[in-house]
């Protein structure tokens, strides 16, 4: 499994979340198997999103997709997005 971490600043969370939710079918089509959304503590206009994929190739294709770029513009992303790709080594539920 590969996890894609995305961090960027947004102008309005409600507007951003509406566009993010509407992109759900595209995420599924591009291979996302699970996702989570986080807001940075003390900085509510900074979001961190994780997307899990079965492989790194799918994660990289999604990160470079025109659909994602268009959605970010529409959602009001106001900073350059930061992307990190990580291979899942261990997940331990408690």
UniProtKB/TrEMBL annotation:
Keyword DNA repair in the entry? The reply is no
Recorded protein name is: Cyclase/dehydrase
Highest rank taxon of the organism? Bacteria
The record's listing under SUPFAM superfamilies reads:
Dimeric alpha+beta barrel
Listed A to Z, the keywords are: Plasmid
Please give the InterPro entries that the UniProt record associates with this protein. ABM_dom, Dimeric_a/b-barrel
In its UniProt entry, the species of origin is given as: Allomeiothermus silvanus (strain ATCC 700542 / DSM 9946 / NBRC 106475 / NCIMB 13440 / VI-R2)
Extent of the signal sequence: none
Q: Which residues form a coiled coil?
A: none
Taxonomy of origin reads: Bacteria, Thermotogati, Deinococcota, Deinococci, Thermales
Sequence ranges assigned to domain ABM in this UniProt record = 18-73
């Amino acid at each position: 499994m590969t996890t894609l971490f995305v961090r960027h600043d947004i102008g309005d969370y409600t507007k951003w979340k509406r566009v993010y939710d509407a992109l759900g079918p595209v995420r599924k089509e591009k291979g996302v198997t699970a996702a989570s959304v986080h807001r940075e503590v003390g900085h509510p206009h900074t979001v961190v999103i994780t997307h899990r994929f079965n492989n790194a190739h799918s994660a990289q294709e999604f990160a470079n997709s025109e659909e994602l770029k268009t959605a970010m513009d529409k959602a009001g992303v106001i900073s350059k997005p930061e992307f990190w790709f990580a291979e899942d080594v261990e997940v331990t539920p408690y």
